[in-house]
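Hi all, posting the design record for the shared folder.

TITLE: backbone redesign
STEP: 1 of 1
STRUCTURE INPUT:
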């Protein structure tokens, strides 16, 4: 790991840890949150906005030449080659309902590759970190994806996007269950992806995710030995895209199911 990336790993972790404390403060007082609806099943609260602003301010102070892309606020272009991608609270629907199943997400991109992913679940007290080429950890311990060889040997998380309609997700669910699988769902796509990296789930798929929801966790999965469908970084950053990822023993079958079901780009 070069010195620039090492510096960003250390500072990035400090920043996400501080943001997670702020998020928990909001969570403990959710009755006072101001909640808006951006679209169907797409909520934003003043907690999302406040946590993102905190992360942005810390990044701009520490790395003033780095770019920033966040879910709730405007884009800052990079002059250093590094760009940070923020999801201040992934799983807002769970968060505002007072349930676990949400997290704070930060990714760092360099030369169109995700080089750092940090995801903290403050309620479970779990911190997932990956640096490109350095492996993936959960609370400092190395993690690996499941050794399962079929859908019948574990649970598959299936995401749903209102941007693509219900049919692609229904087709995927049917095919997974017909193959002997069962499915899992919580409010946070990033957390479900982390569960794939930790071997708790065997696979995850969704017809459309935004970059801030997935690129940090996809790096964590890949560094934990998982497979994922490749994507073009600038397209993902600007438009989002489908996500198909699994442990090696299940990935080929999941890829076949999803490529048939999901809208063609």
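Okay, here is what came back for every position:
SEQUENCE:
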């Amino acid at each position: 790991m070069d010195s620039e990336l090492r510096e960003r790993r250390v500072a990035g972790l400090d920043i996400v840890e501080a943001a997670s404390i702020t998020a928990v403060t909001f969570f403990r007082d959710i009755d006072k949150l101001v909640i808006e609806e951006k679209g169907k099943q797409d909520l934003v609260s003043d907690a999302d906005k406040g946590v993102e602003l905190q992360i942005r301010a810390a990044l701009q102070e520490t790395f003033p030449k780095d770019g920033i892309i966040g879910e709730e606020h405007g884009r800052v272009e990079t002059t250093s080659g590094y760009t940070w991608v923020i999801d201040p609270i992934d799983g807002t629907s769970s968060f505002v309902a007072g349930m676990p199943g949400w997290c704070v997400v930060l990714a760092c991109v360099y030369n169109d590759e995700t080089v750092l992913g940090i995801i903290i679940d403050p309620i479970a007290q779990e911190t997932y970190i990956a640096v490109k080429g350095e492996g993936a950890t959960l609370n400092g311990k190395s993690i690996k994806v499941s050794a399962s060889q079929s859908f019948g040997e574990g649970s598959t998380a299936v995401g749903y996007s209102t941007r693509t309609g219900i049919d692609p997700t229904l087709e995927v669910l049917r095919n997974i269950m017909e193959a002997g699988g069962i499915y899992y769902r919580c409010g946070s796509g990033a957390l479900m992806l982390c569960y794939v990296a930790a071997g708790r789930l065997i696979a995850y798929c969704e017809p459309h995710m935004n970059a801030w929801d997935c690129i940090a966790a996809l790096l964590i999965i890949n560094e934990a030995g998982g497979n994922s469908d490749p994507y073009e970084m600038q397209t993902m950053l600007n438009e989002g895209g489908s996500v198909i990822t699994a442990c090696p023993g299940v990935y080929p079958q999941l890829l076949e199911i999803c490529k048939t079901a999901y809208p063609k780009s």
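COMMENT: The first helix runs from residue 3 to 27.
Let me know if anyone wants the other runs.
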